[in-house]
Design goal:
Keywords: Cell inner membrane, Cell membrane, Membrane, Transmembrane, Transmembrane helix, Transport. By secondary structure, this protein is mainly α. Helix content is 78%, strand content 0%.
């Protein structure tokens, strides 16, 4: 019979192998897309007929596709700024003050994150059509994505605020600082990594969001709806290229944010 140390070692190896297998399954589709973006035959890996950069050249010369990328980046930025501007004060109110119906407010804030995108998209579309002078387009898409990104900001900032010692801000106020100055000079630097990570998550979720944008974007072309059109009409080469470029950019942004800001430890730890 194997000793406890041997069983523990075997269990560790089994769990490691299982983790590697799961990660391989998750990453395999991304690897396939990257390979197909430079393959002459962009529809399937086998038979592999060679490598080419012609697909990248054609994609970078597609003005409509590049315009949709710019629209998505602009919408994501504005939606994230709006979600952060609303989410940070809301988090402070929920954590630091006795707000009436605070539990109901928390549920209302988190709800857009768990409600199916089809439900929220249809609801916003119906609401838009009932209001005079408002049609689906750029502004409704920004507002919808801001609502979708708000829970990420509130959850991360609230978690960080709960770990920050509020007596420091109290001491600043006792020394004559106004509540606003105490927040700016004491509390805000402590929660800044959480604010940045909330903004980043809201931006990424807005940039890659399709279902809600499909209902409310109207004539405003965004990247996800443009990629859906490419898929529907069978133009795989450009789809593979733009997916690879988006994956690369998002990976770099996340890596820089996680490394430079040490986001994980700053949000979860009380340092």
């Amino acid at each position: 019979m194997a000793s406890p140390s041997t069983r523990s070692r075997l269990l560790g190896h089994a769990l490691s192998a299982w983790t590697v297998a799961v990660l391989a399954v998750l990453w395999l589709p991304l690897v396939v897309i990257i390979v197909l973006s430079v393959a002459e035959n962009a529809a399937t890996i086998l038979p592999f007929t060679g490598v080419t950069l012609a697909h990248y050249q054609a994609t970078l010369q597609d003005g409509a596709l590049l315009g949709s990328v710019a629209n998505s980046a602009t919408i994501a930025t504005l939606a994230s700024v709006l979600a952060t501007a609303v989410g940070v004060p809301a988090s402070v109110a929920l954590v630091r003050y006795d707000v009436p119906l605070s539990n109901a407010f928390r549920v209302a804030v988190v709800l857009p994150m768990v409600v199916p995108g089809v439900v929220l998209g249809i609801g916003v579309l119906i609401s838009i059509r009932t209001l005079p002078g408002i049609t689906p387009g750029f502004v409704p898409t920004v507002l919808t994505h801001a609502v979708y990104g708000l829970p990420f900001v509130v959850l991360l900032v609230s978690a960080r605020l709960a770990a920050v010692d509020d007596t420091l801000a109290d001491a600043a106020r006792d020394l004559g600082a106004s509540p606003l100055v105490a927040f700016r000079d004491v509390t805000l630097p402590a929660i800044a990594p959480a604010v940045a990570s909330g903004f980043l998550f809201a931006w990424v979720r807005s940039f890659e969001e399709f279902v809600r944008a499909y209902f409310v974007s109207g004539t405003t072309d965004v990247l996800t709806t443009e990629m859906y059109a490419l898929l529907a009409y069978g133009t795989a080469p450009k789809l593979n290229v733009i997916a690879t470029l988006v994956l690369f950019v998002l990976a770099v942004v996340l890596a820089v944010a996680m490394t430079a800001g040490d986001v994980v430890s700053a949000v979860t730890a009380g340092e």
